[in-house]
Amino acid sequence: MRExxxxxxxxxxxxxxxxxxxxxxxxxxEDISWRGEDEGASLFGDAAVPAAAGAVSLPxxxxxxxxxxxxxxDAAVPAxxxxxxxxxxxxxxxLARTTDADIDWLRKADKxxxxxIHKMHAFVRFRRLGEDETGRESFAAWFEPTHQIMxxxxxxxxxxxxxxxxxxxxxxxxxxxxDETLTYGPGGTKDExxxxxxxxDQWRTYYGAIFNPARVKVAAMRAEMPKxxxxxxxxxxxxAPLLAGAGARVERMRETAVSLANPQTGKWRTRVPEELTLTxxxxxxxxxxxxxxxxxxxxxxxxxTQAVTGxxxxxxxxxxxxxxxxxxxxxxGRPFVxxxxxxLNEALEEAGLDRRSVFLTNAVKHFKFEPRGKRRLHQNPTTxxxxxxxxxxxxxxxxxxPYLIVTLGGSALRGVTGKSASIKSMRGAVHELAGxxxxxATIHPSFLLRLPDRxxxxxxxxxxxxxxxxxxxxxx
Length: 476
Ligand code: URA
Hints:
Layout: E1 2-6, H1 12-24, E2 32-36, H2 60-69, H3 77-90, H4 101-123, E3 127-131, E4 137-142, H5 150-160, E5 165-169, E6 173-178, E7 181-186, H6 198-210, H7 218-224, H8 239-244, H9 246-256, H10 285-293, E8 318-322, H11 327-332, H12 339-350, E9 359-362, E10 369-372, E11 375-378, H13 383-400, E12 404-408, H14 410-417, H15 423-426, E13 431-432, E14 438-442, H16 445-450, H17 454-475
This protein binds uracil.
């Protein structure tokens, strides 16, 4: 019996290194005992992982699932995963065998992990610790995920809170983002993180602002925000009073509601009731995100999951503006993470632009769609919707002050310029907006996904990359 000791629970790299070498050396699952470092003395004596001899190829989907499922809180997981990769090395169809007990377990465990990740993304709440002499602020958060998902979730917080120093402490591990470096350490306890502070109050204000009494579904709220998370959520204490006042607020909203589209013309008037008057008092991108999260200026907020604001550094020289979040963006709360985002990422890379160096946003902040069965089909925003949402885009522009804006598609061009001009008439030249910001107009990446003709798609893609390259050179 060979004994493999894993030093860090949920560390995929460590498990993969061992599994690769064992697979390559042909060590069968039944000849291995997997043990966590803290699981007591070994029965068999330590046996080193064999040196890898050649690589065994495995389906990418399986490796992606293994990377998540290794975080499942169950000591039997490393062994079970190894048995699956061992079987998959001989059976290329293994993953498709849905009645197979291992595969059924794998898929269920993967689903549980994804759900846990989603909850952690949504429910981590930072407390402010202070700021250093340069004014850079630091924050800490305590969170108790169901599984050991610190390493799976840290990159999300790194992207989302790039501009501040933070630590997230969980019982199993901690992630620390300091001086733009992400490191991991051992787990900790709740009392390492201060109990409450201003950030907590902001969360409560924010939650009160986005709480929509007309859409109260208590069962759905419980499912989305299970009680076990409440104790660490500052806003949870407000749920009961908000629910109690919901009826009266719905009445008030009815009286003052923003008018809906006229079904005959598809147009609608904007009437911003006093209660919804927007504040100019926004000084940071985080404040902006919170404010947009409560936006009810047009009816698109009614059906979208959440508002999606821009992402990137305030110091970015280039701002890329798309149309509106799509299905994936609406669920994840980040711009360009779906299929169009994939096309954009590849094009940016080929143009020599690092996605992290630009500021990515959209002309419209809520997903507009038409339900079709279980699917949500994208619908173009109207010029009215784009124009109303310009208020937010202008705020983002004012905060980031990019040297150059690249509009992706017609809606973005409308959003930035406020005018209806064709991309064709604007493309290929550098324009100047009021205030001196440069503008380059190009196509939307989803246009490339819709072109059936391969040759044409390749040409359009090359032209798109050329526009992005031009943008990089101009902003350099
Ligand atoms: N399309 C867009 O215009 N923006 C996104 O964020 C995603 C798809």
